[in-house]
């Protein structure tokens, strides 16, 4: 019989700007007590975490788990399982599935699927189109994470390119509106130029020239201008250029910001120099750009112009990625390696453990007003992760958990290893082994 309580002893708890060695008691779904020298009773599993870090689970505010409609690439079950192995305990999934999540019915269908198959806590973005404002206005803000608009680069009819419609959506909802910003006209013009020169087999090194700094800046600056005009609550996804970072503010606390920004692991890790060796495996939209852009993204993350680190996890099969440039899809799998990737940057001296936790755990909770998650606090859900900071390991085919079976980090050695992941107080993952019971719950919002 499983025990109802878990006592984690002697961990270095990283939370709210401090790292303190202490004990943490879990009872049921929640963190019951945080104190020095908690004494266990007989109904208690005891884990000695000496030498380990205890972090809140990461809340990933942007993933594509491919269900429904694209399940040959990934499913909510397969990708949430990889996520908890990587220490991500909650995710917000995007609406560009098939069918798209642009009606209340499809949103409810996704919730029902996740309730039956998700290892991690879950919620979903509701998608905007040029003609679904009536559906948007029906949304219960306590039930949905937010609204997602593709202002560039999308599938189906999810490209929202009518400025009057964008203004109307911005003016009509109090929901947080997350946007993908790339100017489609600029990209089409650039693509046409290079197709004329190379045909379909354009060198991958030209990806950040086609999906250029100008395309990103034009779109994001216009979205921010509209948000200021309408008073909309705007969150700009996956910044990829240094130029865009100047559009964001660090003079007020996150809880008071109306305009916020996210950066993804791949834009903090790779640069255009990596296309030579990684090819289409690092083809993302927006594109990975220069080392200087990467440095400026780090600078903005550290000085709080950028608020959140996410993954934009978007798996494709190896066969799909092997196509010529114009046919190879953009996106890559990242949830299993996001936390260890950022902790590698801690080991390199780029940021502190405390700052990493702020950007991956606390800030998504603040930004989306998620109830009782993102912190190690008494009374909060026990979504927590133990990390060994001295257990070196290398990403190889046989330890990759994504359904697509590959990672852009293959061959990379990390100095930190996720050893235990708790979801709602249950030990869901331990040293490569999973509890096959599903412990994920629907995220709720304090709005």
From TrEMBL:
<dbReference type="InterPro" id="IPR002195">
    <property type="entry name" value="Dihydroorotase_CS"/>
</dbReference>
<comment type="similarity">
    <text>Belongs to the metallo-dependent hydrolases superfamily. DHOase family. Class I DHOase subfamily.</text>
</comment>
<dbReference type="GO" id="GO:0005737">
    <property type="term" value="C:cytoplasm"/>
</dbReference>
<dbReference type="Pfam" id="PF01979">
    <property type="entry name" value="Amidohydro_1"/>
</dbReference>
<feature type="domain" description="Amidohydrolase-related">
    <location>
        <begin position="54"/>
        <end position="427"/>
    </location>
</feature>
<dbReference type="GO" id="GO:0046872">
    <property type="term" value="F:metal ion binding"/>
</dbReference>
<comment type="function">
    <text>Catalyzes the reversible cyclization of carbamoyl aspartate to dihydroorotate.</text>
</comment>
<protein>
    <submittedName>
        <fullName>Dihydroorotase</fullName>
        <ecNumber>3.5.2.3</ecNumber>
    </submittedName>
</protein>
<keyword id="KW-0479">Metal-binding</keyword>
<dbReference type="GO" id="GO:0004038">
    <property type="term" value="F:allantoinase activity"/>
</dbReference>
<dbReference type="InterPro" id="IPR011059">
    <property type="entry name" value="Metal-dep_hydrolase_composite"/>
</dbReference>
<dbReference type="GO" id="GO:0004151">
    <property type="term" value="F:dihydroorotase activity"/>
</dbReference>
<dbReference type="GO" id="GO:0006145">
    <property type="term" value="P:purine nucleobase catabolic process"/>
</dbReference>
<dbReference type="InterPro" id="IPR032466">
    <property type="entry name" value="Metal_Hydrolase"/>
</dbReference>
<dbReference type="InterPro" id="IPR050138">
    <property type="entry name" value="DHOase/Allantoinase_Hydrolase"/>
</dbReference>
<dbReference type="InterPro" id="IPR006680">
    <property type="entry name" value="Amidohydro-rel"/>
</dbReference>
<keyword id="KW-0378">Hydrolase</keyword>
């Amino acid at each position: 019989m499983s025990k109802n309580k878990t006592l984690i002893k002697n961990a270095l708890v990283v939370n709210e700007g401090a790292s303190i060695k202490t004990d943490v008691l879990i009872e049921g779904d929640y963190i019951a007590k945080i104190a020095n020298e908690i004494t266990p009773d007989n109904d208690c599993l005891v884990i000695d975490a000496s030498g380990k870090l205890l972090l809140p689970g990461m809340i990933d505010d942007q993933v594509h788990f491919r269900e429904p409609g694209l399940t040959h690439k990934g499913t909510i079950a397969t990708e949430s399982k990889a996520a908890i192995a990587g220490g991500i305990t909650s995710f917000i999934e995007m609406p560009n599935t098939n069918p798209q999540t642009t009606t209340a019915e499809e949103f409810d269908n996704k919730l029902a699927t996740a309730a039956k198959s998700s290892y991690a806590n879950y919620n979903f973005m509701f998608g905007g189109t040029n003609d679904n404002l009536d559906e948007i206005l029906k949304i219960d803000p306590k039930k949905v994470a937010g609204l997602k608009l593709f202002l560039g680069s999308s599938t189906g009819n999810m490209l929202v390119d009518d400025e009057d419609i964008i203004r109307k959506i911005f003016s009509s909802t109090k929901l947080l509106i997350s946007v993908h910003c790339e100017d489609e006209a600029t990209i089409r013009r650039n693509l046409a130029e290079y197709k004329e020169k190379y045909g379909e087999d354009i060198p991958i090194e030209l990806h950040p020239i086609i999906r250029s700094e100008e395309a990103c800046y034009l779109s994001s600056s216009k979205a921010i201008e509209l948000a200021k005009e309408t008073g909309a609550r705007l969150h700009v996804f996956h910044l990829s250029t240094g130029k865009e970072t100047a559009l964001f503010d660090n003079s007020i606390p996150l809880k008071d910001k109306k305009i916020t920004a996210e950066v993804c692991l791949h834009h903090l890790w790779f640069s255009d120099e990596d296309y030579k060796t990684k090819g289409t495996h690092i083809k993302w939209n927006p594109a990975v750009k220069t080392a200087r852009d990467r440095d400026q993204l780090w600078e903005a993350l550290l000085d709080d112009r950028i608020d959140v680190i996410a993954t934009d996890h978007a798996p494709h099969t190896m066969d799909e990625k092997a196509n010529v440039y114009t046919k190879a899809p953009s996106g890559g799998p990242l949830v299993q390696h996001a936390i260890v990737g950022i902790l590698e940057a801690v080991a390199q001296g780029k940021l502190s453990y405390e700052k990493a936790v702020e950007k991956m755990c606390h800030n998504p909770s603040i930004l989306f007003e998620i109830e009782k998650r993102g912190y190690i606090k008494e009374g909060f859900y026990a979504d927590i992760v133990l990390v060994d900071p001295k257990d070196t390991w290398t990403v190889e085919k046989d330890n990759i958990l994504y359904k697509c079976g590959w990672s852009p980090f293959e061959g990379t050695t990390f100095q930190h290893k996720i050893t235990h992941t708790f979801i709602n107080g249950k030990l869901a993952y331990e040293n490569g082994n999973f509890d096959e019971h599903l412990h994920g719950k629907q995220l709720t919002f304090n709005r």
